[in-house]
Amino acid sequence: MRPGIFLGSVLLLIGMFSSVAGAFVGINIGTDVSSLPPASEVVSILKANEITHVRLFDADTHMLNALSNTGIEVTVSVTNEEVLGIGQSPSAAASWVNKNVVAYLPSANITAIAVGSEVLTSIPHVAPILVPAMNYLHKALVAANLNYQVKVSTPQSMDIVSRPFPPSTASFNSTWNSTIFQLLQFLRNTNSYYMLNAYPYYGYINSGGIFPIDYALFQPLSAVKQIVDPNTLFHYNSMFDAMVDATYNSISAYNFPGFQLS
User: Fold this and answer.
1) Residue 132's CATH number
2) Side-chain-side CA neighbours of residue 211 (13 Å)
3) What pTM does this model have?
């Protein structure tokens, strides 16, 4: 999958080995909300607006059926409530893949499984189970001969980057060293990508007024408001770009042999 942005919550996909063939704008869809239009109507809206990528916050049957035969690339999600059980049982992982992926292929263009959402910061007691869950799901995909079509990753919060600015010296919180090392190793070994939930809004709120509001809203900055990394002298026009670079640099600090970003 190419690097891209999913609107709603913002999910950046950082490719590990695949070449970048262009970017995309996608949509996050959660079915656990009130007043959501019928799935068929949601898909009609996506098609009318030429949306080519969707991330479902679960593996909703109605949405997957409606997305079938549209060509829209779909990321299905293991909910946080499901991660623990899957991480403890290869059979549970196989059952999940069969029920939520295999059953909809090839009609639904499922290309990725997102395992939980911000697991390290939202349900930290499950952290030791996260990568095992991903491994079990990947092995289930291998058994179904789908591992080249469907990648496995897990969206992470910017909160695990303890010092996001300046980006050149950013690093992951050492609390998660073991889990992050295992995660990056898994992504490298399976030719998958790092999923990042990047929210400039929260970055701005948590900055305590250090950064101007325009920086978080993708608005032009005046000369006196320029944001510069003092180590690289790189000028950042948006907080989102700085978050992405901070994540790249945090990943690079682990220095895997042959580990590449694209």
Assistant:
1) 3.20.20.80
2) 28
3) 0.89
